[in-house]
């Protein structure tokens, strides 16, 4: 199985934040309103007043993230998958969640597609730190895996949970 888009997006954002360009003050691309992705065939009507950011090249077309004041980070991602089923893609994604255990899983929908919601409990990022919570909704259309996720040290905040629900509800697939 290829590395999933969530891992790619997280790596791109980490590289972008730690890159020489970031050190020179080159910011991530930012936006508001509707995010459209023609390469992977989806759009998200981001709630008013919410700013999202995208990593610069070479990963500009997978998705975006929203860092929140409450220390939550929400992300939306799409990438190619070798998995032939949603169940296979979910197993692959869960296996890549280093330091995390799946604490819950349930069927749901995303953009009209059958989906699975996973809740993870993750070890603290550093000694003495708080355990982390991570939630993801995964849906598959052909060879594309769509992910909407959120994470936070401790538990996801109320504003984070509300944004997660709003973004999930406003996610739609589009023709490619």
Radius of gyration: 15 Å
Give the N-terminus to C-terminus distance in angstroms.
23 Å
| Strands, count | 11
Query: Under the CATH scheme, which class?
Result: Alpha Beta
The run of helices and strands is HHEEEEEEHEEEEHE
Main beta sheet: strand number and arrangement? 6 strands, antiparallel
The CATH topology name reads Protein Transport Mog1p, Chain A
Task: Report strand order across the widest sheet.
Answer: 5-6-10-9-8-7
Could you state the CATH homologous superfamily? Mog1/PsbP, alpha/beta/alpha sandwich
Summed up, the helix count is 4
User: What sort of overall outline do the alpha carbons produce when their principal axes are compared?
Assistant: globular
Strand portion, in percent? Answer: 35-45%
> In percent, how helical is the residue content?
10-25%
Commentary on this structure:
Mean pLDDT is 85; it is low at 10-26. It contains four helices and eleven strands; from the N terminus they run ααββββββαββββαβ. The longest helix is centred in the N-terminal third of the chain and has 14 residues, at 5-18. It has a single domain (5-173), classed as Mog1/PsbP, alpha/beta/alpha sandwich (Protein Transport Mog1p, Chain A, 3-Layer(aba) Sandwich), CATH 3.40.1000.10. It is an alpha+beta fold and 176 residues long. It has helices at residues 5-18, 20-23, 86-96, 158-169, and strands spanning 29-31, 34-37, 42-45, 52-54, 63-67, 73-80, 100-110, 113-122, 132-141, 144-153, 171-173. Strand 2 and strand 3 (42-45) form a beta hairpin. The strands form three sheets. It has a six-stranded antiparallel sheet with strand order 5-6-10-9-8-7, sandwiched between helices.
């Amino acid at each position: 199985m290829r590395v999933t888009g969530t891992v790619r997006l997280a790596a791109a954002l980490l590289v972008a934040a730690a890159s020489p360009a970031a050190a020179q003050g080159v910011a991530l691309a930012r936006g508001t309103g509707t995010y459209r992705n023609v390469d992977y065939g989806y759009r998200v009507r981001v709630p008013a007043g919410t700013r999202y950011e995208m990593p610069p090249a070479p990963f500009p077309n997978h998705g975006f993230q929203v860092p929140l004041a409450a220390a939550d980070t929400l992300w939306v991602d799409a990438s190619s998958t070798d998995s032939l089923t949603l169940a296979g893609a979910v197993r692959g994604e869960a296996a890549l969640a280093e330091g995390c255990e799946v604490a819950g899983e349930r069927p749901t929908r995303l953009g009209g597609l059958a989906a699975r919601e996973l809740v993870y409990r993750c070890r603290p990022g550093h000694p003495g730190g708080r355990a982390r919570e991570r939630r993801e909704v995964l849906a598959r259309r052909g060879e594309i895996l769509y992910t909407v996720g959120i994470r936070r040290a401790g538990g996801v905040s109320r504003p984070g949970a509300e944004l997660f629900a709003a973004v999930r509800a406003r996610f739609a697939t589009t023709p490619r």
